[in-house]
Predict the structure.
Amino acid sequence: MSRWLLRRLVDAVVTFLLVAVLVFVLMRLAPGDPLDRLTEDRPMAPAEQARLRTLFGLDQPLGTQFVRFAEAAVRGDFGASIEYYPTRVTDLVTSRLGPSLLLGFTVLLVNLIGGVWLGVLQARRRGSRLDRWLTRLSLAGYAAPSFWLGWMLVSLFAIKWRLLPAAQMTDPLLPPDAGWLSRAADVGAHLILPAVTLSIVSLAATMRYQRSAMLEVLRLDFVFAARARGLSERRVIWRHAWRNALFPILTLLGLWLPILVTGAVFVEQVFNWPGLGSLTAGAVMTRDYPVLMATALLVAAAVLISGILTDLAHRWLDPRTRDG
Amino acid sequence: MTPLLTVDNLRVTFPRAAGPSTPVDGVSFAIDRGERVALVGESGSGKSLTCLALLRLIPNPGVIAPGSSIRLDGTEVLSLEGEALRAIRGGRIGLVFQDPMTSLNPVLTVGYQVREAVTAHRNMSRAEARDRTIALLDEVGIPDPAERADAYPHQLSGGLRQRVMIAIALAGEPDLLVADEPTTALDVTIQAQILELLDRIRARRNMAVLLITHDLGVVAGRTDRVMVMYAGQIIETAPTARLFAAPAHPYTQALLQSMPRLTGPVGRLVSIGGSVPDPTAWPTGCRFHPRCDRRITPCAGEVPPWRAAGPGQEARCWLIEGVAP
Ligand SMILES: Nc1ncnc2c1ncn2[C@@H]1O[C@H](COP(=O)(O)OP(=O)(O)OP(=O)(O)O)[C@@H](O)[C@H]1O
Ligand SMILES: [Mg+2]
């Protein structure tokens, strides 16, 4: 067990380093650089341009640049953002992480509870009208582009009916002495539309995975055997069948966890949600190398860590792999 | 005295695009309290579906056809729902499945699975349920039951797993234990042990037992009566000794001949020619007639009636002259 974990950790670290090098090199090989953007709409003297290049170390050879970056990064220093100079990248990222996690965890919760429950319901009523309609609806949600869906919801709920705020995470007009309850309610109201948009487009995957996993399990002998000993249907479904049909969901969850961290780019853009998704999208446009590097490494870390967590959960929940 | 279990005209059908299939087609029998009965037949004859029907566990989309009746102590099982049905499952009728490798839940400990069978039928404290679980595991001959209760199914051998399945079937103190080929999936040496265990438990608890098998060899000396099933129907029933001494139906005779004998010339293993027909299109008349080498004029066209063939023995065959009842 511990040897297995050690191997996984070593693998993860090696992968992480590879990703770091790859992203760093590819980013600089792509045409254009941060100076192009800075000089786009205002002319800049060549001497000034050179000064900025030196400031951000862009005049150095690629190898030197990477070594400098790596040396600082291991100390937790990703330098200053080019676009938001002189704000530190770490400050920028940490201020955006909270909103992304809030949105991500809300969607994850909806997905887990709603998707699992609906998928199990579909499997139990396989072939019924309910099953067919749930499939159609979830696929329609899956097929809807998230920015379009977001816009539709905004124009209906925020603009037409004025029920919910259209954008941002907080109301700038909220009095500064507002209590925590009204602050939470304010964030909650802002959270609804982006969370609903993301949930609708992502629920289909959970439902479909859960439905087919459950159908596989429901025809196995031990489910009949559980019924034959007089257990309640609820116990047969959840304790016996679902307990064996949650492994595909676990895998799906592992793929989902990184999105928690990065946020969903489109939805954050539409709702002007101050998360990492919109930060990254902006950094791509402006070629803000330090910000891009930090967010890329954050995603890589999230992917690798959630992979390990998924495997750990799998081993913990499946006794057959536990003593292997 | 009314029998413990009375099955009357049981039919199980599966809807299909090409018309329904009827793998169990008009099965009737009765079992008395404490009686030991065997149900014998080739693979595909409908034995397992008959067992599952007793507990209303026919897999989707199969259904028990209207007109069927299963009465337990006079109560019609087919009209029960919810709690009352669950009280029968495991509480009045215990079921031991064929394959202990697949019929235990792989992610729950065996102790947990026995315990939930115990508490499904009796209200008791955690400590009582645990004691009862260990007592049951002990009763079915599992060494170190307190320790083994915490094992997962994959950590036990096939023989031990089948013992666990038997413990689960006994947990609700059933009046009837149905064992569907309980040894087919096990090693030969283990098979005898499991059958002996079933014999001992039955004697101690005085339950009725319905033993399903396709091997007549395990029936002798272990059951009071044998029912022979062919193509979804019972075609002969007789006291065990009588069946071995004077089988009446040509199918029973063929089954007996196909039994490997320990005495007599070695290597004489007769198998019955042909195979069990398809439940979507049963043969007309006697369902065995296409494979029967003694068929006569009415066999292909008319369904043979039940005829007495000896003391306590009846068979559905046109060849039987009929003994005055
Ligand atoms: N789920 C199902 N769907 C459709 N047909 C089925 C199903 N289960 C069983 N059958 C049909 O019923 C027939 C009898 O099945 P059953 O399992 O009762 O046979 P059996 O006598 O127990 O055989 P075995 O000795 O192989 O266990 C099979 O040949 C099959 O055609
Ligand atoms: Mg069978």
In short: Residues 180-218 of chain A form the longest helix (39 residues).
